[in-house]
Amino acid sequence: MKHWKGLAVAAVAALVVCCAGAAGEEEAVKAAPAIDDAAEEAIAAANQRLLDAYLARDLERWLAGFAEDVVLMPPGVMMIVGLDALREASRIQFGELEKYEVAIEGEPAEIVVAGGWAYTRTSYEARYQPLDGGEPILDRGRSLAIWERQPDGAWLVSRYISNRPLPGPR
User: pLDDT class for 106, splitting at 50, 70, 90?
Assistant: First the structure.
């Protein structure tokens, strides 16, 4: 992640320098956005807490990671609007998950912070192994989460969209 951040800042700085005109190189480089390492680390930790809560099927800990006005757009199902709707949808999903051993791999490939907002872009692979010994179900997907910093400094998911790539070349 550190390598990506360095490249991103370098690219933004280069763009600002090239487009700065009479502003001068020194002033243009100062205009490049600062990387908020503390916020990125806090978001990565919050993301891990959400994953841990999901794997543990801990409904209250899971819901604690989302804003009251959250909007989720999962693939193939209706949009979920608000924490109460997420509670009901998660209760149903966690009940279904009791039939499986679940393993999920993936972490944010990109975390971008802009003041009190941020987004994470993630690719994941989930394996749902039926406890009755049937064939595992594999799920690969991508997601984009928009995070909002709360007055207490916590980061909560405000908007979330995920999809599954189609088979074949990308």
Answer: confident
